[in-house]
Amino acid sequence: MDAQQNMLEIKDLTVEYVVDDEVVHAATEVNITIPAGKTFGLVGETGAGKTTTALSILNLVPTPAGRIVSGEVLVKGQDVLEASPKQLRAMRGNQVAMVFQDPMTSLNPIKTVGEQIAEGVRIHRGVSDKEALGQAKKLLEMVGIPGGRMSEYPHQFSGGMKQRVVIAMALACDPDLLIADEPTTALDVTIQAQVLKLIRELKESSRMAMLMITHDLGIVAQVCDSVGIMYAGRIVECGTLADIFDDLRHPYTRGLFDSLPDIENRRAELKPIPGLIPDPVDLPPGCAFHPRCSYARPECSRDLPPTRWLSDTHHVSCHLYKDTAENMLSA
Amino acid sequence: MVRYIIRRLLALIPVILVLTFIVFAILSMTPGDATTIILGSEYTEELGAKLRVQLGLDRPLVVQYFHYVTHLLQGDFGISYVTRAPVLDQLSVRLANTAWIVASAMLLCVSLGIPIGILSATKPNSFFSQGTMVFGLMGVSMPIFWLGLLLILLFSVNLGWLPSSGLDNGPKSLLLPAITLGFNYMANIMRTTRSSMMEAVRQDFIRTARAKGVSEFGVIYNHALGNALMPTITIIGLDVGTLLGGVVLTETVFSIPGTGRLLVEAINQRDTPCVLGCLVVMALCVAVSNLIVDLIYAYIDPRIRAQYGAKARSA
Amino acid sequence: MEATSTAGRAGAPPAAPPPRAFTTKKEFYAQFKKKSIAHELWLRFLKNRTAVAGLIIFSVIAIVAITAPWIADYDAVVTKIDIAARLQPPSASHWFGTDELGRDILARIVHGAQVSLLIGITAIFVSLAVGLVLGGAAGYYGGKTDSIIMRAMDVFLCLPDVLLALAIIAAFGNTKLNLIIAIGLSFSPKFSRVVRAAVMSVRDNEYVEAARSIGARDHRIIARHVLPNCIGPIIVQVTLYVANAILTIAALSFIGLGIQPPTPEWGNMLASGRTFMRDFPHIVVAPGLAIFFTILALNLLGDGLRDTLDPRLKH
Questions:
Q1: How far separated are the first and last CA of chain A, in Å rounded?
Q2: Which of A247, B71, C5, C191 is most buried (most C-beta within 10 Å)?
Q3: pTM of this structure
């Protein structure tokens, strides 16, 4: 793959937060590659480090506490972590846009919705206020909100509509990469479906690449081309949609899929993953998942698992696959 | 919006009425007869009785109050027991002087306090910011009458730069009184602005703005500031009461012939109509400034406006 | 399957003591008893250096105020006039110098502390009592009770503290008792607001509903469930208002309407010393410093208490 073709390349990214003399290992040696026009799903439970990874793409990790220890984040070949503030500002909202998790608090309550959408257009396209507002109107309509509502304030919209506004804001300048951090988590299920539909339509109509962060495998199945599974700050398994859904290899991934209730077998017992997510300040030695893993071996508590490429697209980090490429999980 | 203003103005009236009644009632309990004060050495039983009827002092309290208010609405504050002249005469002259000091103090405080508060919020750990916090704390703890004396010692006695009393020297004579009067006020504004800015900058929508590519300057001034201003404006408006309380002290320290000093003199002379007049005027000022604060709130925050006028459509 | 993530963590709580035979249920449960909340809050308070400084300074002042008669005998030192020794600058025998009547300033300041603190604290407790009743009722019962009480309070809020106190003093004279009542009443509206807000935030919690559902009567619910949880903000405000009250007393005394000479009070000391300030500046330094440090200490303490008691302010 030509490096220039890739919209996003995150290489060995390690991010820490230092709070009260304790170090939180938010993301460790993360590698993600997204080619143009493709959608990558980053899956993991809350606290796994997904948002931190996403924020690093825009170099928005909150600085007094957060620290990017090492790694590179290349957007269209340019290293974001080395860019000047001016270059960063030119990129944010323009080539890379982000939709955050909670629509209730993502919008400025004292500015109209139209102004907030138009702001990005004005900054990056340098057009007049009037033109920018005109664009804002069109964008609102594109996400399914009547254009006349652009002079209204965020509190006048429901949660689902607010999230659409946020999406419109993100798309204002036709970004090449859209980062969506759990865009539907804070919404009701029915609204979730609407917003997802919108996202799917956008994906089909544009050449935009997307990083979809979620903990919901159902969403992944609907919109993603490839998937990365994240646990305690590390990517433990990564592959195409087919790789993960049909040929999963990592015990954690198995646990995630198993914990989904089976609609066809209502009487079966639920199978949650035993134990709790580790404290990011005090991760278990070796493989962070080993205390909860039913396949754990002695070396799991000592050494970090190696990353094994099972195919061109599929890799997994687990001691089970140190010597073999066969599926080590019981059926 | 206009409806909101009218509603608030109308709501103001009962407040003023009740307030003036309370003050009136309190003052009517002043021991000693008004007539003895007025007539002084010329007091006789007969004259006293006649005067009492003349002044309406033999009527029930509520009736007296009713008379007072009706006269008040016509601009008649009654007759001073001491000068035998309308209270309004003294009041209007003195009020102008007080207005000068209060206005200069407010101007000084707002124009210095808010920018300093904003600047110190943008770099919270800098020397400047810590210094602002310290100054803020010292500022609200400082007794202003002491500060006035110290300022006089320094700038009038030692350095001779500024006058120590009166308002006769033009703008120079306003400077020390304004600083003195506004000291607590400004410290409060600074602290509030700083903390509300720091709070505003932590909100999620600031992160959204940054993710859109808005510059730091834009983030602070276009996004954070509007949201942070509310607590600051509350303080600016509601603390007018502190300013008016301080007016009495400042005028005493700097020997300025204003409403505050008039109030103290009137109390000492047991000149009830005058005391009443001063208190009523001051209370009115506070009430009006509260109203202005509410109006500014409604102007800035669309959520408040929505309750009182613009049709709110929720999806 | 055990969670191993907490094993070996630095600063982990000490391992439970080895099990032993329990004879009573109480003993059995006692082994799980954590350090009380008060203890934890105290530790947290201690981390705030400025708050601790405030506590120390105020404690010193309070101790001085309480032991005043033993530090300086009232008749021999505080009120004894000695014209020969008047207006002496600070020296070994008179640490703060002497005032215009030859009295030792330090001794007068010490006694002044007793006066100020006594009146200030008493006045605030009066305020608190009124505020608890009114604010508690308004917050707990809500609805009409709330509207009526709050409207009444709003009226009073239009009159700044000093002015309301002045009105009461104008009518009733400035004895110590009147001062306490005047100041106490002028802070009551503010206290009512604070109590009301605290009560409202607690009232809707589920444990109140639970208590009500088992038939507990209103006053019992208020006393045992609601009020104990409101104590935090109330304590903070008490501290801050005591500072305000002391300042008000000093201010009133400064303009001659508070504590009268020869009783030493920091405010009236500044007022009488003022005439001689030009040539003998030392006379206005010490009393002012006393006021300043007392208020500063209380403000630091109040802010520190607020930070300690507010669970959200972890950053």
A1: 34
A2: C191
A3: 0.78
| A107 neighbourhood in chain B, CB within 8 Å | 205, 208
Residues in chain A within 8 Å Cβ distance of C9: 282
Quick one: pLDDT band at residue C35, thresholds 50, 70, 90? low
User: What is the length of chain B?
Assistant: 315
Give chain C's end-to-end CA distance (angstroms, integer): 35
Which of B90, B42, B87, B49 has its CA nearest to residue B68? Answer: B87
Alpha carbons B145 and A321: distance in angstroms, whole number:
80
pLDDT score recorded for residue C59: 92
B107: distance to nearest CA of chain C, Å?
21
Q: B315 vs A157: CB contact, 8 Å cut-off? A: yes
Q: B105 to chain A, minimum CA–CA distance in Å?
A: 30
Q: Spell out which residues of chain A touch residue B301, defining contact as CB-CB under 8 Å.
A: 109-110
Per cent of chain B over pLDDT 90 is: 14
Q: Among B36, B45, B182, which residue's Cα sits nearest to residue B108?
A: B182
Question: Touching C: which chains, 3+ CB pairs < 8 A?
Answer: A, B
Could you report the per-residue pLDDT of A230-262, keeping only the tens digit for each?
Answer: 998 899 999 999 989 998 889 999 888 888 877
B208 touches chain A (CB under 8 A): yes
Q: Which residues of C touch A (CB under 8 A)?
A: 1-6, 9
**Residue among C178, C122, C187 at smallest CA distance from C160:** C187
- A68-87 residues labelled b (16+ CB within 10 A) or e (exposed): beebebbbbeeebbebeeee
Mean pLDDT of C116-129: 92
List of chain A residues with pLDDT < 50: 1-3
| pLDDT tens-digit readout, B54-64 | 777 777 778 88
- B270 sits in the region (left: phi over 0; alpha: psi -120 to 50; else beta) called left
pLDDT 10s digits, B31-47: 666 666 666 677 777 77
Sign of the Cα pseudo-torsion (C87, C92, C96, C102, in order) = negative
- Please state, for a pLDDT cut of 90, what percent of chain C lies above it: 17
What is the C-alpha to C-alpha distance for residues A30 and A236, in angstroms, rounded to an integer? 10
| Residue count of chain A | 331
**ipTM for the predicted complex:** 0.84
B275–C155 CB contact, under 8 Å? no
